[in-house]
Amino acid sequence: MKRKVFVASSIAAALAGCAKITNGLNEWQPAQPILNSAETLNQAIIGTRGTARLYRPGDVTLDYPVNSLDTPHQPEYLSLIESDFTTYRLPVGGLVDHPQTFTLRQLRALATLDQITRHDCVEGWSVVGAWRGLSLGSFLKLVRPKPEARYVVFYSYDHDQSGQQFYGSLNMAQAVHPQTMLALDLNGKPIDAAHGAPVRLRVPTQLGYKSTKWIRNIALVSNFKDIFGGQGGYWEDAGYAWYAGI
Hints:
CATH architecture: Alpha-Beta Complex
Number of helices: 8
CATH superfamily: Oxidoreductase, molybdopterin-binding domain
Helix content: 25-40%
CATH class: Alpha Beta
Strand order of the largest sheet: 2-1-10-5-6
Strand content: 25-35%
Order of helices and strands: HHHHEEHEEHEEHEEEEH
């Protein structure tokens, strides 16, 4: 690894850490300028030019773990499970010239991207999985983003105990990275509910909390300052870095 990339990654890892969202450093206000500067440094140096390591089939973890988030229990999602996701629809809108709603069958017909990559969870564990899905960059071409679209926001079916919806975002450069995908299959089978069915985001160049699960709808926006806490994601609103490059 080149020294400048190692330095940036080390700073980000040391500051963001593999800890729960409630870790003391994120809650300590004097540390916020340091966290923010590390995020800027990490993105500026590593950016979106690098790619995540690709692994071999023999490296795949067959018993793929589940993080601490519970599977959504809202009636809307439970009804999808009961229908085996045949009633699933994915609306894509916002700052696009051609908003569309896709069925799961349509999404599967577009799935041409296969990759074996490592998932690095902020909880402190890593695992290798074989993923199949759609290149997000190619997919977004179907809705024709407007010039002013700068971010892609992913809204989840999941909500926390207070009713707050989970969501995440990427900028356009991250969204069209060749390894960023809308994943449909994991280890040769359709993704199950615990792992984010029927459609989840996979961003192997960033920590796992950037890979939104249980995607309900997608919106392209010029900024996210007026979306919930204004930091670009559920975890980011709680104090995590918006850019979580690894």
